[in-house]
């Protein structure tokens, strides 16, 4: 396992230490969350009783494969904990998410969690967000108009494609526009401007959501609590 994968694994496994018997858990999407799901599966095999909601179809499949019982928001309206990765973490703990296209479900799940644990390797830390293109989920109808209006806000936006060249379609049957705004110095301002556009479903900006940021460089793990 390379150093970055080791860092992701260490951060993910530290997050799973927060999980207690009987909890309801939001399961993130991506290569870092993968390690959390695997570790949770081990603990479930040892007798831990949890119920979980996945943030993508891929995550639901991974959870089922390790026998984590899945529920839906018809069963609960609040989760004890959500664990998820991020594409960037800024100095003010705002996040960019959606590199895997799961941002809408991820934001819904994180917003329902009493504590949202962000798990990252050290390469994800930045001063201001923006090196990683900002994913914005848009409805397919009139996406060209939404694309135009988003670019009018001051970015270059590209509709995400799959490896085979076809448009990437989210689990919610929408498109993703990857937006290059340069350095994002005021994430709430940008988020609000994007959300005001008809056709924008959600942005990958996660602001004031993290309860803890758990970071590893593959040797050490640090836990920061932004809200304390
Ligand atoms: O849509 C994907 C998610 O926001 C991921 O949490 C994010 O892209 C980080 O993924 P990874 O852990 O693979 O770097």
UniProtKB/TrEMBL annotation:
Subunit structure: Homodimer.
Organism: Sulfobacillus thermosulfidooxidans (strain DSM 9293 / VKM B-1269 / AT-1)
One GO BP annotation of this record: pentose-phosphate shunt, non-oxidative branch
Function: Catalyzes the reversible conversion of ribose-5-phosphate to ribulose 5-phosphate.
Database matches in HAMAP family: Rib_5P_isom_A
Protein name as annotated: Ribose-5-phosphate isomerase A
Pfam families recorded: Rib_5-P_isom_A
Lineage, uppermost ranks: Bacteria, Bacillati, Bacillota, Clostridia, Eubacteriales
The organism's place on the tree of life at top rank: Bacteria
